[in-house]
Amino acid sequence: RIQQLLTGYTLAHELGHNMGLGHSRSQASNTAGLFGGLFHYSVGYQWVTENEAFVTVMGYGEFKQTLSGDTVFTQDAAVFSSPDVIWQGVAAGTLEPIYGP
């Protein structure tokens, strides 16, 4: 939909695929797979905090359980994954491969 291109992360997400990025390995569906994207770390990232859950541009939004045990829908973090990028006090990526939801 054109509306998604203008207001959402769809364009950034699809450009990410063109640059060799894959989806998150820890999402429930359509995961990045063993080798990720162009590099093993070229994937989306999901993480949870005490009360919230987040997903970078290359990941899919889904329900996650927070550290406090609540189930919430992931919030979009407007960044590509990187351990050098801090989003709301937490690194938005890791150098270590993460597998499974």
Brief overview:
By secondary structure, this protein is of the alpha+beta class. It has helices at residues 2-7, 10-18; strands at 46-48, 53-55, 63-65, 71-73, 75-76, 82-87, 90-92.
Written overview of the protein:
This protein has one domain (2-92). The chain has 101 residues and is α+β, with helices and mostly antiparallel strands. The radius of gyration is 13 Å and the shape is globular. It has helices at residues 2-7, 10-18; strands at residues 46-48, 53-55, 63-65, 71-73, 75-76, 82-87, 90-92. The chain contains two helices and seven strands.
- For the termini, the CA-CA separation is 28 Å
Can you give the mean pLDDT? Answer: 84
Q: Identify the strand order in the major beta sheet.
A: 1-2-5
Low-confidence spans: pLDDT under 50, at least 5 residues?
none
Q: What characterizes the major β-sheet? A: 3 strands, mixed
Structural class: alpha+beta
User: Based on DSSP secondary structure assignment, what is the total number of beta strands?
Assistant: 7
Shape: globular
Order of helices and strands: HHEEEEEEE
Strand content: 15-25%
- Helical percent range? 10-25%
Q: What integer value in Å does the Rg equal? A: 13 Å
How many domains?
1
Number of helices: 2
Outline the fold blueprint.
Blueprint: H1 2-7, H2 10-18, E1 46-48, E2 53-55, E3 63-65, E4 71-73, E5 75-76, E6 82-87, E7 90-92
Parallel strand pairs: 2-5
Antiparallel strand pairs: 1-2, 3-4, 6-7
